[in-house]
Amino acid sequence: MTRVPLVGLVDWRLPGDHFDAVELVHDMGVEGLQLDLGGPGRGPWLDAPGTVDRLRDDCFRRGVRPLAVAGNTLNDIGLLVPPGGQEAVNVRRVLLRVLETAQALGAPLAFVPSFRRSEINDVHDLRRTAAVLSWAAREAAARGLLLANENALAAPDSRALVEAVAEPNFRLLLDTYNPRAYGVDVATLIEATHEWIAPQVHLKDGRDGVVSQELLGDGDGQVWEALTALEKAEVTCDALVLENDYRDGGIQRLAVDVRRTRDRTARADTSAALA
């Protein structure tokens, strides 16, 4: 990392709704928030009438930066649906809603995940995903946004995805735990893909491939080693975004994770200054 990043949270791992998340970010003394588009089983739609305007105002009043908008509902719909049909049209509509909401909130990044129904398991899946993301990246560029994809691919397939998308504003969203849960070495992944890693990184920890209630650094995710790898690769990181699960109201755990993240970045900044 070439600068001290701000600390952010994701609204889909916090108790309450979008508006509660803005208030909690402010109360925890962190700077930024990633928001999910929502959808069936995922909470209220972020782009419901009046919601974006109110959120933008709330963020401004509380000094909270909208960092990104995620389309997590695409894990349920599937980026891999065959082209040309109604399902493919629906995927594009959702992607446009993600992009338009990010633009309206003033967030610099939009991202979509590739898990569950969107998981990339073979060359066909990769090519289909790349075709959809290439179109979406062009739409994102027209709105002044970066587009990122979060996946669990190993380094060679991650590079193949970037090359297949072939758009300059396309990035890979790094999560410090998801690749490990799929048997991917995170340090190797960072070394191989560092030039395409999105400037916002998810910090997450767990045990035996499952995210439970492990504090950052207490699980088997090697969180701080991942940050060291990012620093070594000189990845530009604007935000470290905590994605442990606090939906049960575990605010004390959240406070500890925030403190640990700040302590770690402060030490790294001191070391860099002395080098």
From TrEMBL:
The protein's name is: Xylose isomerase-like TIM barrel domain-containing protein
What are the residue boundaries of the Xylose isomerase-like TIM barrel domain, all occurrences included?
22-227
Highest taxon listed in the record's lineage: Bacteria
